[in-house]
Predict the 3D structure of the following.
Amino acid sequence: MSKVILQKKISQRVANGHPWIFSNEIDKIEAEVKPGEIVEVYTFDNKFVGKGYINPKSQITVRLLSRDRNETIDEKFIFNRIQAAWDYRKKIGYTENCRLIFGEADFLPALIIDKFNDYFVIQTLSLGMEVWKSTIVKALQTIFNPKGIYERNDVPVRELEGLEQKKGWLTESSDTNILINENGLQFYVDIENGQKTGYFLDQQDNRRAIRHIAKGADVLGVFTYTGTFEIHAAHYGAKSVLGLDISENAVLQATKNAELNGLANVCRFEAVNAFDVLKQWGKDGRQYDVVMLDPPAFTKSRENIDKAVTGYKEINLRGMKLVRPGGFLVTSSCTNLVSPELFLDTINMAAKDARRKLRQVTFRAQASDHPIIWGIENTNYLKFLIVQVL
Ligand code: SAH
Protein backbone atom coordinates (compact mmCIF):
# COMPACT_ATOMS: atom_id res chain seq x y z
CA MET A 1 0.00 0.00 0.00
CA SER A 2 1.36 3.43 -0.91
CA LYS A 3 2.39 5.77 1.88
CA VAL A 4 1.52 9.44 2.15
CA ILE A 5 3.75 11.50 4.45
CA LEU A 6 2.31 14.66 5.97
CA GLN A 7 4.19 17.88 6.46
CA LYS A 8 5.78 18.57 9.81
CA LYS A 9 3.41 21.40 10.54
CA ILE A 10 0.42 19.17 9.98
CA SER A 11 -2.73 20.98 10.92
CA GLN A 12 -4.22 20.24 14.28
CA ARG A 13 -7.45 19.50 12.42
CA VAL A 14 -6.28 16.12 11.13
CA ALA A 15 -4.71 15.22 14.45
CA ASN A 16 -8.02 16.05 16.12
CA GLY A 17 -9.93 13.65 13.92
CA HIS A 18 -10.88 15.54 10.77
CA PRO A 19 -10.77 13.14 7.80
CA TRP A 20 -9.68 15.59 5.07
CA ILE A 21 -6.07 16.02 4.02
CA PHE A 22 -5.44 18.89 1.62
CA SER A 23 -2.75 18.78 -1.05
CA ASN A 24 -0.67 21.46 0.71
CA GLU A 25 -0.54 19.38 3.89
CA ILE A 26 1.28 16.55 2.14
CA ASP A 27 5.07 16.39 2.13
CA LYS A 28 5.44 13.42 -0.19
CA ILE A 29 3.63 10.50 -1.70
CA GLU A 30 5.83 7.41 -1.82
CA ALA A 31 5.36 5.50 -5.09
CA GLU A 32 2.94 6.09 -7.95
CA VAL A 33 -0.68 6.08 -6.85
CA LYS A 34 -3.75 5.24 -8.84
CA PRO A 35 -6.56 7.78 -8.34
CA GLY A 36 -9.07 6.25 -5.94
CA GLU A 37 -6.75 3.73 -4.34
CA ILE A 38 -6.37 3.22 -0.60
CA VAL A 39 -3.24 4.71 0.94
CA GLU A 40 -1.69 4.80 4.41
CA VAL A 41 -1.05 8.21 5.91
CA TYR A 42 1.88 8.94 8.25
CA THR A 43 3.17 11.96 10.10
CA PHE A 44 6.59 13.42 9.17
CA ASP A 45 8.14 11.29 11.93
CA ASN A 46 6.53 8.11 10.70
CA LYS A 47 3.57 7.81 13.10
CA PHE A 48 0.54 6.13 11.59
CA VAL A 49 -2.41 8.53 11.10
CA GLY A 50 -4.93 6.46 9.16
CA LYS A 51 -6.04 4.90 5.91
CA GLY A 52 -8.05 6.56 3.23
CA TYR A 53 -8.62 7.00 -0.45
CA ILE A 54 -6.50 9.30 -2.57
CA ASN A 55 -7.24 11.49 -5.57
CA PRO A 56 -4.19 13.52 -6.65
CA LYS A 57 -6.50 15.60 -8.88
CA SER A 58 -8.57 16.82 -5.94
CA GLN A 59 -7.63 19.62 -3.57
CA ILE A 60 -8.78 17.29 -0.81
CA THR A 61 -6.17 14.75 -1.79
CA VAL A 62 -6.88 12.15 0.87
CA ARG A 63 -10.07 11.44 2.79
CA LEU A 64 -9.48 9.15 5.73
CA LEU A 65 -11.73 6.13 6.19
CA SER A 66 -10.13 4.54 9.22
CA ARG A 67 -7.69 5.34 12.01
CA ASP A 68 -7.13 1.66 12.74
CA ARG A 69 -3.98 0.27 11.17
CA ASN A 70 -5.38 -3.28 11.31
CA GLU A 71 -8.63 -2.49 9.54
CA THR A 72 -8.79 -3.54 5.89
CA ILE A 73 -10.78 -1.31 3.55
CA ASP A 74 -12.83 -3.81 1.58
CA GLU A 75 -16.44 -4.84 0.86
CA LYS A 76 -16.90 -5.98 4.44
CA PHE A 77 -15.69 -2.63 5.74
CA ILE A 78 -18.23 -0.73 3.59
CA PHE A 79 -21.01 -3.13 4.60
CA ASN A 80 -20.20 -2.74 8.30
CA ARG A 81 -20.15 1.05 8.12
CA ILE A 82 -23.57 1.12 6.42
CA GLN A 83 -24.99 -1.40 8.88
CA ALA A 84 -23.63 0.64 11.81
CA ALA A 85 -25.20 3.83 10.41
CA TRP A 86 -28.56 2.06 10.09
CA ASP A 87 -28.32 0.62 13.62
CA TYR A 88 -27.65 4.16 14.89
CA ARG A 89 -30.67 5.60 13.03
CA LYS A 90 -32.92 2.85 14.43
CA LYS A 91 -31.56 3.41 17.93
CA ILE A 92 -32.54 7.10 17.84
CA GLY A 93 -35.99 6.38 16.49
CA TYR A 94 -35.94 6.51 12.68
CA THR A 95 -37.82 3.79 10.88
CA GLU A 96 -39.14 4.71 7.45
CA ASN A 97 -37.25 7.72 6.09
CA CYS A 98 -33.86 9.00 7.09
CA ARG A 99 -30.53 10.16 5.87
CA LEU A 100 -28.87 6.77 6.20
CA ILE A 101 -25.35 7.98 5.42
CA PHE A 102 -24.31 11.56 6.13
CA GLY A 103 -20.79 11.43 4.71
CA GLU A 104 -18.09 12.33 7.21
CA ALA A 105 -20.54 11.99 10.11
CA ASP A 106 -20.87 8.30 9.28
CA PHE A 107 -17.17 7.89 8.57
CA LEU A 108 -17.81 7.40 4.86
CA PRO A 109 -16.56 10.72 3.46
CA ALA A 110 -18.34 12.09 0.38
CA LEU A 111 -21.14 9.51 0.50
CA ILE A 112 -24.77 10.55 0.94
CA ILE A 113 -27.61 8.04 1.11
CA ASP A 114 -31.21 9.01 1.77
CA LYS A 115 -33.70 6.29 2.60
CA PHE A 116 -37.22 7.02 1.44
CA ASN A 117 -39.27 4.12 2.55
CA ASP A 118 -38.18 1.19 0.32
CA TYR A 119 -36.19 3.43 -2.02
CA PHE A 120 -32.66 4.75 -1.68
CA VAL A 121 -31.11 7.80 -3.30
CA ILE A 122 -27.33 7.90 -3.30
CA GLN A 123 -24.63 10.44 -4.10
CA THR A 124 -20.97 9.51 -4.46
CA LEU A 125 -19.31 12.90 -4.45
CA SER A 126 -15.64 11.94 -4.72
CA LEU A 127 -13.67 9.65 -6.98
CA GLY A 128 -12.53 7.55 -4.01
CA MET A 129 -16.17 6.89 -3.08
CA GLU A 130 -17.32 6.38 -6.67
CA VAL A 131 -14.96 3.39 -6.79
CA TRP A 132 -17.12 1.68 -4.13
CA LYS A 133 -20.49 2.40 -5.75
CA SER A 134 -21.34 -1.16 -6.75
CA THR A 135 -20.20 -2.39 -3.32
CA ILE A 136 -22.51 0.17 -1.70
CA VAL A 137 -25.43 -0.97 -3.87
CA LYS A 138 -24.74 -4.57 -2.91
CA ALA A 139 -24.64 -3.70 0.79
CA LEU A 140 -27.97 -1.84 0.56
CA GLN A 141 -29.50 -4.81 -1.22
CA THR A 142 -28.28 -7.20 1.48
CA ILE A 143 -29.38 -5.05 4.41
CA PHE A 144 -32.69 -3.66 3.10
CA ASN A 145 -33.82 -5.64 0.06
CA PRO A 146 -34.98 -2.31 -1.41
CA LYS A 147 -37.46 -1.68 -4.22
CA GLY A 148 -34.96 0.58 -5.94
CA ILE A 149 -31.69 2.49 -5.67
CA TYR A 150 -31.32 5.73 -7.60
CA GLU A 151 -28.17 7.77 -8.18
CA ARG A 152 -28.39 11.59 -7.96
CA ASN A 153 -24.87 12.34 -9.04
CA ASP A 154 -25.92 15.36 -11.08
CA VAL A 155 -23.88 17.60 -8.78
CA PRO A 156 -21.18 20.09 -9.87
CA VAL A 157 -18.77 19.17 -7.01
CA ARG A 158 -18.11 15.87 -8.76
CA GLU A 159 -16.29 17.77 -11.48
CA LEU A 160 -13.66 18.93 -8.97
CA GLU A 161 -12.89 15.24 -8.61
CA GLY A 162 -12.70 14.63 -12.35
CA LEU A 163 -16.06 12.84 -12.34
CA GLU A 164 -18.98 13.36 -14.71
CA GLN A 165 -22.43 14.44 -13.57
CA LYS A 166 -25.15 11.85 -13.98
CA LYS A 167 -28.36 10.44 -12.59
CA GLY A 168 -30.41 7.30 -13.02
CA TRP A 169 -31.40 3.94 -11.54
CA LEU A 170 -28.65 1.69 -10.25
CA THR A 171 -31.21 -1.08 -10.00
CA GLU A 172 -34.10 -2.01 -12.27
CA SER A 173 -35.90 1.17 -13.28
CA SER A 174 -39.29 2.11 -11.86
CA ASP A 175 -41.42 5.16 -11.07
CA THR A 176 -39.29 8.06 -9.79
CA ASN A 177 -42.20 9.74 -8.03
CA ILE A 178 -42.46 7.97 -4.71
CA LEU A 179 -44.66 8.42 -1.68
CA ILE A 180 -43.39 8.81 1.88
CA ASN A 181 -45.01 9.28 5.28
CA GLU A 182 -43.78 11.94 7.67
CA ASN A 183 -45.29 12.87 11.02
CA GLY A 184 -48.60 11.29 9.99
CA LEU A 185 -48.73 13.10 6.62
CA GLN A 186 -47.92 11.93 3.12
CA PHE A 187 -45.63 13.56 0.56
CA TYR A 188 -44.66 12.84 -3.01
CA VAL A 189 -40.90 12.80 -3.52
CA ASP A 190 -39.58 13.31 -7.02
CA ILE A 191 -36.23 11.56 -6.76
CA GLU A 192 -35.36 12.23 -10.39
CA ASN A 193 -35.97 15.98 -10.72
CA GLY A 194 -36.52 17.18 -7.16
CA GLN A 195 -33.91 19.31 -5.40
CA LYS A 196 -30.85 17.52 -4.02
CA THR A 197 -32.03 13.93 -3.40
CA GLY A 198 -35.68 14.97 -3.88
CA TYR A 199 -36.72 15.87 -0.35
CA PHE A 200 -35.32 17.79 2.63
CA LEU A 201 -35.19 15.17 5.35
CA ASP A 202 -32.99 17.50 7.42
CA GLN A 203 -36.04 19.48 8.57
CA GLN A 204 -38.20 16.46 9.44
CA ASP A 205 -37.80 16.82 13.23
CA ASN A 206 -38.13 20.63 13.03
CA ARG A 207 -41.43 20.42 11.16
CA ARG A 208 -42.97 18.99 14.36
CA ALA A 209 -41.72 22.01 16.29
CA ILE A 210 -44.40 24.28 14.78
CA ARG A 211 -47.22 22.13 16.14
CA HIS A 212 -48.49 24.47 18.88
CA ILE A 213 -47.88 27.83 17.28
CA ALA A 214 -49.66 26.81 14.06
CA LYS A 215 -52.94 26.07 15.78
CA GLY A 216 -55.63 28.55 14.76
CA ALA A 217 -53.04 30.75 13.01
CA ASP A 218 -52.86 32.57 9.70
CA VAL A 219 -49.59 31.20 8.38
CA LEU A 220 -47.25 32.44 5.66
CA GLY A 221 -44.60 29.94 4.52
CA VAL A 222 -41.84 31.30 2.32
CA PHE A 223 -39.48 29.08 0.26
CA THR A 224 -42.02 26.30 0.49
CA TYR A 225 -40.58 23.84 -2.10
CA THR A 226 -42.99 20.87 -1.94
CA GLY A 227 -45.03 22.47 0.84
CA THR A 228 -43.81 20.36 3.73
CA PHE A 229 -43.82 22.99 6.51
CA GLU A 230 -47.03 24.54 5.21
CA ILE A 231 -48.90 21.22 5.06
CA HIS A 232 -47.70 20.46 8.58
CA ALA A 233 -49.06 23.84 9.71
CA ALA A 234 -52.46 23.03 8.19
CA HIS A 235 -52.40 19.57 9.76
CA TYR A 236 -51.67 21.13 13.15
CA GLY A 237 -54.79 23.29 12.87
CA ALA A 238 -53.81 26.53 11.09
CA LYS A 239 -56.74 28.68 10.01
CA SER A 240 -55.14 29.60 6.68
CA VAL A 241 -51.82 28.79 5.04
CA LEU A 242 -50.15 30.53 2.12
CA GLY A 243 -46.94 29.03 0.72
CA LEU A 244 -44.58 30.84 -1.66
CA ASP A 245 -41.85 29.57 -3.96
CA ILE A 246 -40.18 31.01 -7.03
CA SER A 247 -40.44 27.66 -8.82
CA GLU A 248 -43.70 26.91 -10.66
CA ASN A 249 -42.90 23.24 -10.45
CA ALA A 250 -42.44 23.38 -6.66
CA VAL A 251 -45.82 25.10 -6.33
CA LEU A 252 -47.47 22.37 -8.42
CA GLN A 253 -45.90 19.68 -6.23
CA ALA A 254 -46.91 21.50 -3.05
CA THR A 255 -50.50 21.79 -4.28
CA LYS A 256 -50.55 18.08 -5.09
CA ASN A 257 -49.22 17.27 -1.64
CA ALA A 258 -51.87 19.42 0.04
CA GLU A 259 -54.57 17.59 -1.94
CA LEU A 260 -53.06 14.25 -1.04
CA ASN A 261 -53.53 15.08 2.64
CA GLY A 262 -57.03 16.52 2.27
CA LEU A 263 -55.74 19.98 3.23
CA ALA A 264 -56.24 21.82 -0.07
CA ASN A 265 -59.03 23.88 1.47
CA VAL A 266 -56.59 25.41 3.99
CA CYS A 267 -53.37 25.59 1.93
CA ARG A 268 -52.76 27.80 -1.05
CA PHE A 269 -49.50 28.15 -2.96
CA GLU A 270 -48.19 30.89 -5.23
CA ALA A 271 -45.18 31.04 -7.55
CA VAL A 272 -43.53 34.40 -6.80
CA ASN A 273 -40.18 35.93 -5.91
CA ALA A 274 -40.27 36.15 -2.12
CA PHE A 275 -37.98 39.18 -1.92
CA ASP A 276 -40.35 41.24 -4.06
CA VAL A 277 -43.68 40.24 -2.59
CA LEU A 278 -42.59 40.38 1.05
CA LYS A 279 -41.39 43.94 0.55
CA GLN A 280 -44.68 44.91 -1.08
CA TRP A 281 -46.82 43.16 1.52
CA GLY A 282 -44.90 44.92 4.28
CA LYS A 283 -45.85 48.25 2.72
CA ASP A 284 -49.45 47.07 2.35
CA GLY A 285 -49.53 46.26 6.08
CA ARG A 286 -50.34 42.56 5.71
CA GLN A 287 -50.05 40.61 8.97
CA TYR A 288 -49.72 36.93 9.83
CA ASP A 289 -49.65 35.02 13.11
CA VAL A 290 -46.78 32.85 11.91
CA VAL A 291 -44.20 33.55 9.20
CA MET A 292 -41.89 30.70 8.21
CA LEU A 293 -38.70 31.19 6.17
CA ASP A 294 -36.58 28.35 4.80
CA PRO A 295 -34.39 30.00 2.16
CA PRO A 296 -31.70 28.37 0.01
CA ALA A 297 -28.04 28.70 1.04
CA PHE A 298 -27.41 32.10 -0.66
CA THR A 299 -23.70 31.17 -0.90
CA LYS A 300 -21.54 28.15 -1.51
CA SER A 301 -18.18 29.76 -0.87
CA ARG A 302 -16.44 31.30 2.09
CA GLU A 303 -15.66 34.42 0.04
CA ASN A 304 -19.36 35.23 -0.26
CA ILE A 305 -20.41 34.96 3.38
CA ASP A 306 -21.16 38.68 3.44
CA LYS A 307 -23.56 38.27 0.54
CA ALA A 308 -25.29 35.40 2.35
CA VAL A 309 -25.60 37.42 5.56
CA THR A 310 -27.09 40.33 3.62
CA GLY A 311 -29.62 37.93 2.08
CA TYR A 312 -30.57 36.40 5.43
CA LYS A 313 -30.87 39.79 7.06
CA GLU A 314 -33.01 41.16 4.25
CA ILE A 315 -35.45 38.27 4.10
CA ASN A 316 -35.76 38.03 7.88
CA LEU A 317 -36.35 41.74 8.18
CA ARG A 318 -39.09 41.57 5.58
CA GLY A 319 -40.58 38.43 7.13
CA MET A 320 -40.51 39.85 10.65
CA LYS A 321 -42.41 42.94 9.59
CA LEU A 322 -45.29 40.72 8.51
CA VAL A 323 -45.61 39.11 11.96
CA ARG A 324 -48.46 40.39 14.08
CA PRO A 325 -47.22 41.56 17.54
CA GLY A 326 -47.03 38.42 19.66
CA GLY A 327 -46.87 36.17 16.61
CA PHE A 328 -44.00 33.91 15.63
CA LEU A 329 -41.15 33.84 13.16
CA VAL A 330 -39.82 30.39 12.17
CA THR A 331 -36.54 30.84 10.38
CA SER A 332 -33.79 28.59 9.02
CA SER A 333 -30.40 28.69 7.36
CA CYS A 334 -28.95 25.65 5.66
CA THR A 335 -25.33 26.59 5.04
CA ASN A 336 -22.49 25.62 7.35
CA LEU A 337 -20.65 28.76 6.19
CA VAL A 338 -22.93 30.82 8.43
CA SER A 339 -22.24 29.72 12.01
CA PRO A 340 -25.04 29.49 14.58
CA GLU A 341 -23.65 32.62 16.31
CA LEU A 342 -23.51 34.60 13.08
CA PHE A 343 -27.04 33.48 12.23
CA LEU A 344 -28.42 34.69 15.57
CA ASP A 345 -26.52 37.97 15.19
CA THR A 346 -28.07 38.42 11.77
CA ILE A 347 -31.59 37.84 13.06
CA ASN A 348 -30.84 40.24 15.90
CA MET A 349 -29.75 42.92 13.41
CA ALA A 350 -32.97 42.41 11.47
CA ALA A 351 -35.01 42.76 14.67
CA LYS A 352 -33.23 46.02 15.53
CA ASP A 353 -33.98 47.42 12.07
CA ALA A 354 -37.60 46.30 12.34
CA ARG A 355 -37.76 47.75 15.88
CA ARG A 356 -39.12 44.47 17.22
CA LYS A 357 -38.17 42.55 20.35
CA LEU A 358 -37.62 38.81 20.10
CA ARG A 359 -38.34 36.06 22.60
CA GLN A 360 -36.62 32.78 21.73
CA VAL A 361 -38.82 29.69 21.69
CA THR A 362 -36.30 27.19 20.39
CA PHE A 363 -33.01 27.11 18.52
CA ARG A 364 -31.76 23.90 17.03
CA ALA A 365 -29.90 22.20 14.21
CA GLN A 366 -30.84 19.62 11.59
CA ALA A 367 -32.70 16.38 12.35
CA SER A 368 -30.73 13.78 14.33
CA ASP A 369 -30.37 11.46 11.33
CA HIS A 370 -27.79 14.02 10.12
CA PRO A 371 -25.40 13.65 13.07
CA ILE A 372 -23.05 16.43 14.06
CA ILE A 373 -19.53 15.22 14.75
CA TRP A 374 -17.67 17.52 17.10
CA GLY A 375 -14.50 18.68 15.38
CA ILE A 376 -15.96 18.32 11.87
CA GLU A 377 -17.55 21.74 11.47
CA ASN A 378 -19.29 21.15 8.16
CA THR A 379 -21.49 18.47 9.75
CA ASN A 380 -23.14 21.26 11.79
CA TYR A 381 -24.92 23.17 9.07
CA LEU A 382 -28.62 23.78 9.65
CA LYS A 383 -29.95 26.48 11.95
CA PHE A 384 -33.63 26.41 12.90
CA LEU A 385 -35.00 29.16 15.09
CA ILE A 386 -38.45 29.97 16.41
CA VAL A 387 -38.92 33.34 18.05
CA GLN A 388 -41.92 35.22 19.28
CA VAL A 389 -41.92 38.66 17.70
CA LEU A 390 -43.06 41.23 20.23
N1 SAH B 1 -38.98 24.41 3.07
C1 SAH B 1 -38.62 23.41 2.10
C2 SAH B 1 -37.22 23.59 1.52
C3 SAH B 1 -36.96 24.90 0.85
S1 SAH B 1 -35.61 24.88 -0.24
C4 SAH B 1 -38.74 22.03 2.70
O1 SAH B 1 -38.79 21.90 3.93
O2 SAH B 1 -38.81 21.06 1.95
C5 SAH B 1 -35.57 26.52 -0.82
C6 SAH B 1 -36.64 26.88 -1.81
O3 SAH B 1 -36.56 28.27 -2.04
C7 SAH B 1 -36.53 26.22 -3.19
O4 SAH B 1 -37.70 25.48 -3.45
C8 SAH B 1 -36.40 27.40 -4.18
O5 SAH B 1 -37.14 27.20 -5.37
C9 SAH B 1 -36.97 28.54 -3.38
N2 SAH B 1 -36.50 29.89 -3.74
C10 SAH B 1 -35.24 30.30 -4.04
N3 SAH B 1 -35.20 31.63 -4.25
C11 SAH B 1 -36.45 32.10 -4.06
C12 SAH B 1 -37.06 33.39 -4.11
N4 SAH B 1 -36.34 34.47 -4.40
N5 SAH B 1 -38.38 33.49 -3.87
C13 SAH B 1 -39.10 32.39 -3.55
N6 SAH B 1 -38.59 31.15 -3.49
C14 SAH B 1 -37.30 31.00 -3.74
The pocket of S-adenosyl-L-homocysteine is lined by residues 200, 203, 223-226, 228-229, 244-247, 250, 273-275, 294-296 (CB under 6 Å). The mean pLDDT is 96.
